[in-house]
Amino acid sequence: MNKISTYPLRLPKSLKDEVARVAERDHTSMNQFIAIAVAEKISALETEEFFVERAKRADLKAFKNILFRPGGDAPRSGDEL
């Protein structure tokens, strides 16, 4: 089981009231709602960093060669976005 750490969080009253309202609507505690929100933000930042690093390794010439290679089937009806 993960160890739990506490952190005294200071929020403007209006934000705290909104968190309380949304957490109640979500049937969670404020603590759980804030913990999930922090986890989601970390996940988004880590995902962004992953794709930035991945893009640095991209071989655009190889990508274009694959994208425009001859042969294969023409797009079918329904393939469009």
What are the key terms here?
3 helices; single chain; 81 residues; 59% helix; elongated; mainly alpha
Topology, number of strands: 0
Radius of gyration, taken over Cα atoms and rounded to an integer in Å:
23 Å
Q: Residue share in helices?
A: 55-70%
- What is the oligomer described by this structure? single chain
Unreliable sequence segments: none
Report the mean per-residue pLDDT as an integer. Answer: 91
Structural class: mainly alpha
Shape: elongated
> What pattern of helices and strands is seen along the backbone?
HHH
How far is the N terminus from the C terminus? 45 Å
Q: How large is the share of residues in beta strands?
A: under 5%
Largest sheet: none
Number of helices: 3
Descriptive notes:
The structure is a single chain. The model has no long low-confidence stretch (mean pLDDT 91). With 81 residues, the chain is mainly alpha-helical. It is built from three helices and no strands. The chain has a domain at 13-67. It is elongated. Helix 1 packs across helix 2.
Lay out the secondary structure.
Layout: H1 13-25, H2 30-56, H3 60-67
Helix pairs in contact: 1-2
Q: Can you describe this structure in just a few lines?
A:
The chain is mainly α and 81 residues long.
